[in-house]
């Protein structure tokens, strides 16, 4: 899997650590602005460098999380939704209604304490939702 940010309308953006370092992380900003402009985007997993990665990859600095940068540019909300294609078999074949997670985190408030909700209806996983 590549750490490329792809949008068929606006191209692709390499959000790998090496390219983020080479562009002084401008590529992350360009990718987020493209999503804001076209109202769509798909982002693969990326690595947020820690001290060991900075040393290992000889990076200029410890770059911030690309997820945080993108969330802040988009106003704090990122939806995580399964991409379903008819011609690609699902891991769980009977799963026809995927769960969509809308994560609102703004100003790098990712590390704040989570919340626990009680559901009005039970489901097979129990009746607690952790956010």
UniProtKB/TrEMBL annotation:
Looking up InterPro entries in the UniProt record yields: Isocitrate_DH_NADP (IPR004790), IsoPropMal-DH-like_dom (IPR024084)
All residue ranges annotated as the Isopropylmalate dehydrogenase-like domain in the record: 12-109
Q: Which Pfam families match?
A: Iso_dh
Q: Which UniProt keywords apply?
A: Glyoxylate bypass, Magnesium, Manganese, Metal-binding, Oxidoreductase, Tricarboxylic acid cycle
Which terms does the UniProt entry file under GO BP? Answer: glyoxylate cycle; isocitrate metabolic process; NADP+ metabolic process; tricarboxylic acid cycle
Gene Ontology annotations for the cellular component aspect, listed alphabetically? cytosol; mitochondrion; peroxisome
What is the required cofactor set for this protein? Mg(2+); Mn(2+)
Source species, domain of life? Eukaryota
Q: Which GO terms describe its molecular function?
A: isocitrate dehydrogenase (NADP+) activity; metal ion binding
State the similarity comment: Belongs to the isocitrate and isopropylmalate dehydrogenases family.
Identify this protein by name: Isopropylmalate dehydrogenase-like domain-containing protein
Q: Give the source species.
A: Sinocyclocheilus rhinocerous
Source lineage: Eukaryota, Metazoa, Chordata, Craniata, Vertebrata
């Amino acid at each position: 899997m590549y750490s490329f940010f792809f949008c068929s309308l606006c191209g692709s953006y390499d959000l790998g650590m090496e390219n983020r370092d080479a562009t002084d992380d401008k590529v992350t900003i360009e990718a987020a602005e493209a999503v804001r402009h076209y109202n769509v985007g798909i982002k693969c997993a990326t690595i947020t460098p820690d001290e060991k990665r900075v040393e290992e990859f000889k990076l200029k600095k410890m770059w911030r999380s690309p997820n945080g940068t993108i969330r802040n540019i988009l106003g704090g909300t990122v939806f995580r939704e399964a991409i379903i294609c008819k011609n690609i078999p699902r891991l769980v074949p009977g799963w026809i209604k995927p769960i969509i997670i809308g994560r609102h985190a703004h100003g790098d408030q990712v590390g704040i304490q989570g919340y626990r909700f009680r559901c009005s209806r039970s489901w097979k996983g129990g009746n607690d939702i952790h956010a």
